[in-house]
Amino acid sequence: MTTHAPQAPVLEIRDLHVDFRLATGPVHAVRGVSLAAHAGETLAVVGESGSGKSATMLAVLRLNPEPPCVYPGGEILLDGRDLLALPEKRLREVRGNDVAMVFQDPMTSLDPLQRVGNQVAEVLRTHRGASRAGARAEAVRALDEVGIPDPELRARQYPHELSGGLRQRVMIATALVGRPRVLIADEPTTALDVTVQRQILDLLADLRARHGMTVVLVTHDLGVVAETADRVVVMNSGRVVEHGTVAEVFETPREQYTRDLLAATPRLEPTS
Amino acid sequence: MTTAVPKTLAKRPMLELDGLSKEFTGPGATRTLAVDDVTLTVEDGETLALVGESGSGKTTLTRLLLGLLDPTAGTVRFEGHDLAVLSAAELRALRAGMQVVLQDPYSSMNPRMRVTDIVAEPLVTHDVTYRGRRARARLRERVGELLESVGLPARLQDRYPHEFSGGQRQRISIARALASSPRLVVLDEPTSALDVSVQSQVLDLLVELQRQHGLTYVFVSHNLAVVQRIADRVAVLRRGRVVECGETAAVLGAPRHPYTRELLAAVPRPDAYRTRTGSRTGTGNGGGTTGE
Amino acid sequence: MTVVRNRLALAALGVLALLVIAAVFAPLLAPDDPAEQQLLARLTPPVWEGGGSLAHPLGTDQLGRDVLSRVIYGSRVSLLVGIGAALLAGVVGAVCGLFAGFRGGWPDRILMRFADIQLAFPSLLLALAIVGFLGSGLWNVVLVLGFTGWVAYARVVRSEVLSLRTRDYVTQARATGVTDLTIMRRHLLPNVLPHLATIATLHIAAAIVAEASLSYLGLGVPKETVTWGSMLADGQLYLGTSWWVAVFPGLALMLTSLAINITGDALRDVTDPKAYRR
């Protein structure tokens, strides 16, 4: 196993609470979650629907819809700076720049009316004040980096002209072009075919290695966790129920919930 | 409506697909061959898995074998009856024998109907004695039985679909599929939209129901681990063609087609961390370097 | 928030109920004969203005007819025309939209081409042409306004059906052997009804106004029938000097369409199984 230098984590969440004040009453989606992601590692956040894993991750950039979402407590520290306490204007400088996100559905996360290249370049133009031509060139380079063939052509196309796998690569390119320190990927491969999923996971691992990026991978698929993560946080009903290295969690799960999850995960048995 | 379909000749396969093709004409007269010369049989009581990724034609193929689309070429025979030569009324009557469970438990139910009426739709469609107000009590009783057979309390039938979780909805879908006592059930990715823990319960339920009712399944999936658990035989689809077909153990254990091998290799394995961390320390490739 | 909405809906329902009562019991409620002219009491202001009298609480028009009585009587024609036109247009539009959307192919192309052609015509011009051909009269006005309004319903229903028919539950129903007619009735119509209701509330209000325009041009209902539209038309000339002649029918018209719109919204919420959950 890789060992972690005893340095401060890049991203640390301390006792985070997230509530949704709905007309039908308040829903406590996240109830005191603490976790830490260190430089260059992949941290997997595992849980089923309703576990609060997505609300936790969206909270990092305060992207939960407000209202009805409120943050009654907790800290989200990026290099020691509390993002929850940051005014919206300053937070916007963090979004896409220091911390970038990739969502599950590449179909709805891309603007259907914008050329792919422009969407990738948008980050640079908003954060770096890059020139139109400069941002374009950089966007093409980013598309190339995530393994999109013929990036010049693709940059000029619209999202609907791309396959699901290519769209997810565009999403990743969009996230990476600002050279973020932390990439949060929320179920980035769930909507994809297995062969494409494999390619995207390989790509993420490769990019992480090349840029020393910290990846927080949100998923419900323990197979994906085993393939990519260094450490795992298991969430259930808005709480962290277990955390540790992949080997610890997979081999000696302490919680019944983790054991159930492991048992339920379909696995290919060797047949020959 | 209750046109009796004549009982078929002894011991033919339940479902025979012969040289089946479907071509779609898109905008600008572009043509795509979604299903390309597929020949398959499904025997009575077995589970045949159709495995493929998006664009493999598996959805089109299920719509063809259900008679919801007309093939460009080839025939579909269900219990010996060529779907293409049946009249509209005969085809409707035949549908009592083949039902389908679709992938998305959220869009597969009319949000404005109560569970009673959702589950009862096949009953009311195929059995006139269940129609009308006086049959209501008997209908509710039957729906209650069906719900209990899929592990849901009978009293939940007065609720609307949105009051159920994904897994519960999928159980309701299964109850509906069983309502007309079908011989064949097409399961179109029935568990892929569900959480893993729920997924495994639904699979168990499907296996149990098959045993109880002697059902024949056509199980569409992209998840080879699930397929391994439930299927007797596997047909691997790629670009509308069957590239490999055989016993599950043989296809998954000793795949002959490179595409099958690629699919197998792509499945994420819950024990992958062992080899990964092992290879990492062994070769020292950059994958796991942390910090500076 | 829901309480406020409920109160608003209740108030709207109350206004509509009052309106129906006014229309049905007009002869009992109206203080005067709406056609009776009192030339000596021409353009009497409402009771609270100087020179007003209790005999004519909302004043009189240029021929000395009692405005309150006329507003009460006018509700008959307005309601009949509004609801009748919306019903007619709704039924025709829904049937056309359902078939065109679900079946597709040539019936769809023909119907929608027809709808396009009709849309290209200014609807008032079309109404004028038809009234000119059929002759004026209450039922002809209903027919005309119904006929000129169906396109909106048909288009909305069709586009909604186009997306609904690919829903899994429709596929499922087809796979079960449910007939096309039953699918339209059971699975498509209930899901487009809320949209129909929304258009209908707008259409009722529009039809009431359109009837007013037709009456204004002298092509609506016969001159001797009181309608809000004809009152508006008459009153317009006196807006500068005797505002009450036009304002009261206008107010009635506005209140009615507002009440219908709010009721329509509330109706849509009530019929959605997801909305009234506690």
UniProtKB/TrEMBL annotation, chain A:
Sequence ranges assigned to domain ABC transporter in this UniProt record: 13-262
Membrane topology reported for the UniProt record: Peripheral membrane protein
Keyword ATP-binding: yes
CDD domains membership: ABC_NikE_OppD_transporters
Gene Ontology MF: a single term: ATP binding
Keywords: ATP-binding, Cell membrane, Membrane, Nucleotide-binding, Transport
Compartment(s) where it occurs, according to its Swiss-Prot or TrEMBL record: Cell membrane
Name of the molecule in the record: ABC transporter ATP-binding protein
Automatic annotation (TrEMBL), chain B:
One GO MF term attached to the UniProt entry: ATP binding
Keywords attached to this entry: ATP-binding, Nucleotide-binding, Transport
Region described as Disordered: 271-292
Pfam families: ABC_tran, oligo_HPY
Name the UniProt record assigns to this protein: ABC transporter ATP-binding protein
CDD domains named among the record's database cross-references: ABC_NikE_OppD_transporters
Compositionally skewed regions (Gly residues) per UniProt: 281-292
Sequence similarity: Belongs to the ABC transporter superfamily.
PANTHER family: D,D-DIPEPTIDE TRANSPORT ATP-BINDING PROTEIN DDPF-RELATED, TRANSPORT ATP-BINDING PROTEIN
Domain ABC transporter: 15-264
Keyword Transferase: no
Annotated SMART domains: AAA
From TrEMBL, chain C:
Membrane topology designation: Multi-pass membrane protein
A Pfam family of this chain: OppC_N
Keywords, ordered alphabetically: Cell membrane, Membrane, Transmembrane, Transmembrane helix, Transport
Entry's localization field: Cell membrane
Primary residence: membrane
Domain spans labelled ABC transmembrane type-1: 75-264
Matching Gene3D superfamilies: MetI-like
Transmembrane segment boundaries: 77-102, 114-133, 139-157, 192-217, 237-260
Family the UniProt entry places it in: Belongs to the binding-protein-dependent transport system permease family.
PANTHER family hit by this protein: D,D-DIPEPTIDE TRANSPORT SYSTEM PERMEASE PROTEIN DDPC-RELATED, OLIGOPEPTIDE TRANSPORT SYSTEM PERMEASE PROTEIN APPC
Name of this protein: ABC transporter permease
Native organism: Streptomyces endocoffeicus
